[in-house]
Specification:
The chain is mainly β. It has a domain of 105 residues. Helix content is 0%, strand content 40%. Strands 1, 4, 5, 6 and 7 form a 5-stranded antiparallel beta sheet that branches. Strands 3-2-8 form a 3-stranded antiparallel beta sheet, with no helix packed on it. It is elongated.
Length: 154
């Protein structure tokens, strides 16, 4: 069988647009990255300590950059910040330096003391970076803006 010839008035070539007639695709702008809000730094950390021998607990405030002594522990807060301040569950965290020595005073040099903890503590996950001490437990409660005013006497 012989091939069938195309009719003279039919165009057998498909019309391909020339590059000049085709609009170049517009480059899409990349989506704006979602940047989490910066953490809010507090002026103090609210900590709680437990003496495992006497079952005594104490909640206290430590100013950022300050030191507090609890029995043989000397607790220094370097930073206290909270992420998600407007959220229903904010995430406070603090960078602490805790040393132990039965004969320490707050004003002594830190060189002769035994460091028992140095790092971040998280209020929402107290077991993640916990103080490993045979006598004491220490955990972060929250970060605060300033010292709590004394309660009004009635």
């Amino acid at each position: 069988m012989a091939p069938v010839a195309a009719a003279a008035n039919e165009d057998t070539t498909a019309e391909t647009p020339s590059p000049a007639n085709v609009a170049a695709p517009t480059p899409e702008k990349p989506p704006t990255p979602i940047v989490p809000p910066r953490p809010v730094r507090g002026a103090l950390a609210v900590l709680q300590v437990l003496d495992k021998v006497t079952a005594e607990t104490l909640r206290f405030e430590v100013p950022v950059g300050g030191r507090v002594r609890y029995k043989t522990l000397l607790i220094e807060v370097k930073v206290c910040e909270t992420r998600g301040v407007g959220d229903p569950l904010p995430k406070p965290s603090a960078y602490l330096d805790v040393t132990s020595d039965p004969h320490i005073t707050v004003r002594e040099a830190l060189s002769d003391r035994k460091q028992v903890f140095k790092g971040w503590m998280f209020a929402n996950a107290p077991g993640v970076h916990a103080l490993q001490h045979p006598t004491y437990d220490l955990w972060l409660i929250t970060c605060g803006a300033g010292p709590t005013p004394p309660a009004a006497a009635n």
